[in-house]
Amino acid sequence: MKHALTPERSKLLLEWDVRDYQITLDGTEEEHDAHRPLKDGGSTFSTILANLITLQEQDTYFSVALRVNADKDNSSRLRPLFDILAHQFGSDERFKMRFRPIGKWGGPNDEALTTFCGLDEEHSTLVQLHAESRVAGMHVESLAEDLRPSQVCYAARPYSFIIGSDGKLMKCTVVLDTLESNVVGKLDVSGRLDLNESRFVSWVKPHYAGDSTCQKCFFLPSCQGASCPLPRFVDERPCPPAKTHIQRTLRDIHTLEQDPERLIKRWPAV
Ligand code: SF4
Question: Is the pTM of this model over 0.90?
Answer without folding.
Answer: no
